Amino acid sequence: MNEKVFRTMGRTGGGNIAMGVLLLIAGVAMGVMMIVNGAKLLKRRAEITF
């Protein structure tokens, strides 16, 4: 019984680590994209006429 619990805990822990790494990468990528888009908007700010 204990072996089953340890195996399940190991798989769950590994899955949590993998998911955390993926979410971290996705978050960094989104942050970079937002910074780039914000810089583009600021650069083209002078072109806007009302």
Quick rundown:
The protein has 50 residues and is mostly helical.
Structural class: mainly alpha
Strand content: under 5%
Residue share in helix:
over 70%
Give the radius of gyration: 22 Å
**Sheet having the most strands:** none
User: Taking all residues together, what is the mean pLDDT?
Assistant: 94
**N-to-C SSE series?**
H
Q: What distance separates the N and C termini? A: 72 Å
Subunit arrangement of the protein: single chain
Low-pLDDT stretches are none
Gross morphology:
rod-shaped
Number of helices: 1
What does this structure look like?
Keywords: Membrane, Transmembrane, Transmembrane helix. With 50 residues, this protein is mainly alpha-helical. It has a domain at 22-50. 84% of the residues lie in helices and 0% in strands. The chain has one helix at residues 2-43. The chain is rod-shaped, with a radius of gyration of 22 Å. The model has no long low-confidence stretch (mean pLDDT 94).
Give the SSE layout.
Elements: H1 2-43
Features:
single chain; 50 residues; mainly alpha; 1 helix; transmembrane; membrane; transmembrane helix
